[in-house]
């Protein structure tokens, strides 16, 4: 065979080998991702509710003006740059990206930003109104530039634009179809479009090819709503879903041994706290509250349920955040707890009775923790009945000041800033505050306008120490997140706890 023929034969054989490889030997990366998720959204209006567990869904469909990175630093997102126009912190120039589109193909502009905040200002039931209450107006300078005006200095404005309820809504679409139709078929400017929704069952998202950050690597994402944690474990173990989140910690070590799965436990920017309703007479006794706090062996709870990953807290802030007070500690001291309880007029022979409310498997080992706390209290003379409650029911009771027991609650603060932590937890005027001391209002107002960052943080630290000394709201543990997923999936995790399929890819 001559040289020319040899080359031709080799080329033909090579082409045939490639065809065989492409047809049967290669495995294309999956284009779909299924996630077992513990909760559904209470509403598809992302500005209407402060719902930490739903932020991952909102960020997939709506994105956010700014974003808190893994070091809890505010970074550009839909707003690519900003600057204060005055020394008082009342006028903030915002520059929007010019390449953002809503899912109907229309561009996102400063008019949409203005519409979003004006809509909230007209309806006090929209949570955005309470999360950024100092916004008084937005001036549209150009299609992609606006000036946000505040009634008083607002040093946390940029962080707030990355926080709960801060999403830009489509003005033209909502005005065209109406509020009710928008809630049934919402559109945003996020990396995924909502293409299917069965309440309490399934959320189907498809990649948006005009997303400013580029079309996501995974074309289709299905969130299966699976409230039961054991069912979420079974779903990922059987291969019915690719990812399961908020699984019991005890299951993580077992799933790590699976040849097909990866699993991990990691701390993130939420904290377990015990919310005290100050309007219930029993909890007005400071000695009782202190006894409740001193009797909790936080490290023991972390060891029992979280493999020592969840960090005990003494103030209403997560470890290492700007709000943390690392040199302050409320120790576990059962004898001192007994002494404080005696000052309140109670003992094991004359116990006080109360209810402890907790969700069950909404967060890893939440109900187990509640029962452990009740047992610790029983050892000093507090008879506690642990009752399961849904997050929706708790919010209903707390927002109407009808909570009649202590609530084991998870507070999300993806900014790490004290204004969005203790500044909201203890603000007596806010609906999600259960400790309502009117004397705190003016003090918190003064701090919320302090533009000197060092002075602002130092003053907040003093309030947090006082809050812990008086047990107005009891910090317990920095929350942890758990996740299990199929091997072969590139799945970054974040200190904020967000589940962001737009950042995932199959290897």
TrEMBL record:
Top-level taxon of the source organism: Bacteria
The keyword Signal is assigned to this record: yes
Domain Solute-binding protein family: 76-421
Keyword annotations: Signal
Keyword Aminoacyl-tRNA synthetase among record annotations: no
Signal sequence extent: 1-28
Protein family (similarity comment): Belongs to the bacterial solute-binding protein 5 family.
Record-linked PANTHER family: D,D-DIPEPTIDE-BINDING PERIPLASMIC PROTEIN DDPA-RELATED, PERIPLASMIC BINDING COMPONENT OF ABC TRANSPORTER
Name of the protein this chain belongs to: ABC transporter substrate-binding protein
């Amino acid at each position: 065979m001559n040289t020319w023929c040899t080359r031709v034969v080799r080329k033909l054989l090579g082409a045939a080998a490639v065809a065989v490889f492409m047809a049967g030997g290669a495995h294309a990366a999956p284009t779909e991702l299924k996630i077992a998720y513990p909760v559904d959204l209470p509403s598809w209006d992302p500005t209407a509710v402060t719902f930490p567990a739903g932020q991952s869904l909102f960020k997939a469909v709506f994105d956010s003006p700014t974003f808190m990175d893994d070091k809890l630093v505010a970074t550009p997102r839909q707003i690519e740059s900003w600057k204060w126009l005055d020394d008082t912190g009342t006028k903030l120039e915002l520059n929007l990206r010019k390449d953002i589109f809503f899912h109907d193909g229309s561009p996102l502009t400063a008019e949409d930003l203005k519409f979003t905040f004006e809509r909230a200002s007209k309806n006090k039931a929209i949570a955005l109104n309470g999360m950024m209450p100092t916004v008084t107006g937005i001036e549209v300078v150009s299609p992609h530039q606006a000036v946000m005006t505040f009634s008083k200095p607002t040093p946390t404005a940029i962080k707030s634009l990355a926080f709960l309820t801060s999403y830009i809504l489509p003005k033209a679409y909502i005005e065209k179809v109406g509020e009710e139709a928008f809630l049934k078929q919402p559109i945003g400017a996020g990396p995924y479009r909502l293409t299917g929704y069965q309440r309490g069952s399934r959320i189907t998202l498809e990649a948006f090819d005009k997303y400013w950050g580029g079309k996501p690597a995974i074309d289709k994402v299905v969130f299966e709503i699976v409230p039961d944690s054991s069912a979420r474990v079974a779903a990922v173990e059987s291969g019915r879903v690719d990812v399961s989140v908020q699984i019991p910690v005890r299951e993580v070590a077992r799933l790590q041994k699976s040849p097909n799965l990866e699993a991990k436990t990691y701390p993130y920017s939420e904290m377990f706290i015990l919310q005290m309703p100050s309007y219930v007479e029993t909890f007005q006794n400071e000695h009782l509250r202190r006894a409740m706090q001193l009797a909790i062996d936080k490290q023991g709870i972390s060891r029992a349920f979280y493999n020592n990953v969840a960090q005990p807290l003494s103030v209403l802030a997560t470890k290492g955040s700007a709000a943390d007070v690392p040199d302050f500690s409320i120790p576990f001291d059962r004898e001192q707890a007994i002494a404080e309880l005696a000052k309140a007029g109670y003992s094991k022979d004359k116990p006080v009775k109360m209810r402890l409310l907790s969700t069950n498997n909404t967060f890893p080992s939440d109900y187990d923790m509640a029962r452990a706390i009740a047992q610790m209290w029983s050892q000093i003379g507090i008879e506690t009945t642990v009752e399961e409650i849904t997050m929706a029911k708790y919010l209903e009771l707390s927002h109407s000041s009808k909570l009649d027991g202590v609530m084991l609650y998870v507070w999300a603060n993806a900014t790490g800033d004290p204004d969005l932590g203790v500044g909201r937890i203890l603000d007596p005027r806010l609906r999600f505050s259960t400790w309502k001391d009117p004397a705190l209002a003016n003090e918190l107002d003064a701090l919320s306008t302090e533009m000197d960052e060092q002075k602002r943080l130092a003053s907040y630290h003093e309030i947090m120490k006082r809050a812990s000394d008086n047990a107005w709201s009891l910090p317990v543990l920095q929350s942890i997140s758990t996740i299990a997923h199929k091997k072969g999936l590139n799945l970054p995790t974040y200190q904020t706890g967000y589940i962001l399929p737009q950042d995932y890819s199959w290897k």
